[in-house]
TrEMBL record:
Protein name as annotated: Purine nucleoside phosphorylase
Organism: Cyprinus carpio carpio
Family affiliation: Belongs to the PNP/MTAP phosphorylase family.
Residues engaged in binding phosphate: 44, 75, 95-97, 127, 231
Assigned EC number: 2.4.2.1
Keyword Glycosyltransferase set for record: yes
Membrane-traversing stretches: none
Role noted for this protein: The purine nucleoside phosphorylases catalyze the phosphorolytic breakdown of the N-glycosidic bond in the beta-(deoxy)ribonucleoside molecules, with the formation of the corresponding free purine bases and pentose-1-phosphate.
GO biological process, one term: purine ribonucleoside salvage
Length: 300
């Protein structure tokens, strides 16, 4: 296997330099004729999105030189290339999280690989707990902004020497989530009859893996978060740093517990179960958005 020939560096030796990312991207480009313009990241239990791709060429993460491995149930660990109504895409069936013990630069490295593959628009999905009291389990939230809690504590994927070939030292984040794509999603959602369960809101990332306490949920809600999760934000920061457009969705898989009288307990099985129930609509929403990107000439 080519991946083995290049060799997988031991975890401690893996570097994330421009050259390392370029070597991984070059290897992938040598293995497939697909030249993706859209990169998709699937959240917990939402890997079925990749199934919408035609003419698939798929790689297990373990066979891709310098690529991290998925360790979480509900994250298959495959990079799938293919087309969606003619639009070339690459899809991460499984992402990496801080709580897996990886350095933050490693969990976000695939965004730089996307960039070097030629991706222009990144679409991310995640499973999240609903903090907004109007939200119901099964709602799909278009992310309009984020709260980066690990970032407040200095854990930002761009910390360390800046690689100018990817982007500037101090990237702006007030425009992190593309507003045209948010509007497009609302329009597509309305056409598909999804408006009843489509929301717009603020996503807050925590390190995990423990779910939040009641006091934490109350605090995050007061701070302006509508949903809480353990991913996405780090990927968004790295994707924006290197100039890709970003669109992101949270599937509200459970209601965050905000009340001491509640008997509810957050758990991963419920997260995966809700993912299954909404998978089809989520896939239709994302795939229709991608096909409209072409019509709207959003790649210009
Ligand atoms: O990858 P995502 O953010 O969808 O995964 C969420 C957060 C945890 O990894 C897991 C908790 O159930 O789902």
């Amino acid at each position: 296997m080519e991946g083995n020939r290049m060799g997988h560096k031991k975890e401690a030796e893996v570097k994330y330099s421009y050259e390392d990312c370029q070597a991984t991207a070059d290897w992938l480009l040598s293995q497939t004729a697909v030249r993706p313009l859209v990169g998709i990241v699937c959240g917990s239990g939402l890997g079925g999105l990749a199934d919408a791709l035609k003419d698939q060429v798929a790689f297990n993460y373990r066979d891709i030189p310098n690529f991290p491995q998925s360790t979480v149930h509900g994250h298959a660990g495959r990079l799938v290339f293919g087309t969606l109504k003619g639009r070339p895409c690459v899809c991460m069936q499984g992402r990496f999280h801080l709580y897996e013990g990886y350095p933050i630069q490693k969990i976000t490295m695939p965004m730089r690989i996307f960039k070097l593959l030629g991706v222009e628009t990144v679409i991310l999905t995640n499973a999240a707990g609903g903090l907004n009291q109007d939200y119901k389990v099964g709602d799909i939230m278009i992310i309009k902004d984020h709260l980066n809690m690990p970032g407040f504590a200095g854990n930002n994927p761009l910390a360390g020497p800046n690689e100018e070939r990817f982007g500037v030292r101090f990237p702006c984040m007030s425009d992190a989530y593309d507003r045209e794509l948010q509007q497009l999603a609302l329009d597509v959602g309305s056409e598909l009859g999804f408006s009843d369960f489509l929301r717009e809101g603020v996503y807050c990332v925590l390190g995990g893996p423990s779910f939040e306490t009641i006091a934490e949920c109350r605090m995050l809600h007061k701070l302006g978060a509508d949903a809480v999760g353990m991913s996405t934000v780090h990927e968004v920061i790295v994707a924006r740093h290197c100039g890709m457009r970003v669109f992101a969705l949270s599937l509200i898989t459970n209601k965050a517990v905000m009340d001491y009288d509640s008997e509810e307990k957050a758990n991963h099985e419920e997260v995966l179960q809700t993912g299954k129930q909404r998978a089809e609509q989520l896939e239709r929403l994302v795939s229709t958005i991608i096909t409209r990107l072409e019509h709207n000439n959003n790649f210009a």
